[in-house]
């Protein structure tokens, strides 16, 4: 049996890919990863399967109408790869990958593919698109969703198809213990990842940028230059930008952070999502700032190490300062352990589902004898 894993961006961005390759590698399954090398870089693969990259560099942040012809070319490449290699089963990562090949999934791979749903795209603006996504879920072997918030938004017809899979590369017990440095001269608030939602982050910098009790650190790419220019204009001397980083640097960032910045604007797409940094807070035992009225706030409800805030609150800096200095290390550690155990249990169910998927062909054949 050979499996095709279908992605729509670079390997280093698809961190959730490794949840699947870990299971496939441990079961000696033959597979290829088909993906679009949008950054035009030579990437190292950390799995045993083959790679079939579509090598065409584009500016990810240019308007969609400028990208559409390259999008079409990648879809044609993708369809050719599926036809030529004749995969027995598919693992389809994100709706961007699934919707353009829905006809193939329905005709040739019904109940023989895993659909990995990561983010909302056009489901809120187009009922037709939403129905297609619902059908993709219906026809899948199972559908992995990274947030229960998405389940509520998509409202799938067949709930038995859904398995929650957390937005972590590999869930395992953290080797870090909670360490809250309350005697620090300044509270270091750190962010790592793709820097976007610029207007929202400008508000964040406005709340803390001129306050000598805090230092803000932004690690990552995206639209960080716009935010950096804004902070220079506002003369915020306590806001720092480090630019591009490697995933292996995250533990170093965590060690230099007192509080993790996980505050996102509650727009239609982000409000039900569970970002990777929410899990980084658990992994690195970091107190974390989150947005009120979000799925992340629901997830961390009752957790002393998470503070739900509203950037419209003029007293937010005082509240964060007082909250941080009143944290009790033991309670924060216990709260994070409780959440960690839930994530680990869900990940065991994920592994079982994938193992059932790759063993399903053998089970089908055994029914013939």
Summarize this, please?
By secondary structure, the chain is of the alpha/beta class. It has 13 helices and 13 strands.
Main features:
369 residues; alpha/beta; seven-stranded parallel sheet; six-stranded parallel sheet; 18% strand; disordered C terminus
Helices, by number, come to 13
Strand content: 15-25%
Quote the average pLDDT: 89
Q: Sum up the overall morphology in one term.
A: globular
Cα separation of the termini: 19 Å
Radius of gyration: 22 Å
> Order of strands in the sheet with the most strands?
3-2-1-4-5-6-7
What do you see in this structure?
The radius of gyration is 22 Å and the shape is globular. It contains 13 helices and 13 strands. Helix content is 41%, strand content 18%. The strands form 2 sheets. Strands 3-2-1-4-5-6-7 form a 7-stranded parallel β-sheet, sandwiched between helices. Strands 10-9-8-11-12-13 form a 6-stranded parallel β-sheet, sandwiched between helices. α7 packs parallel to α8. The chain is an alpha/beta fold and 369 residues long. The C terminus is likely disordered. β11, α10 and β12 form a beta-alpha-beta unit.
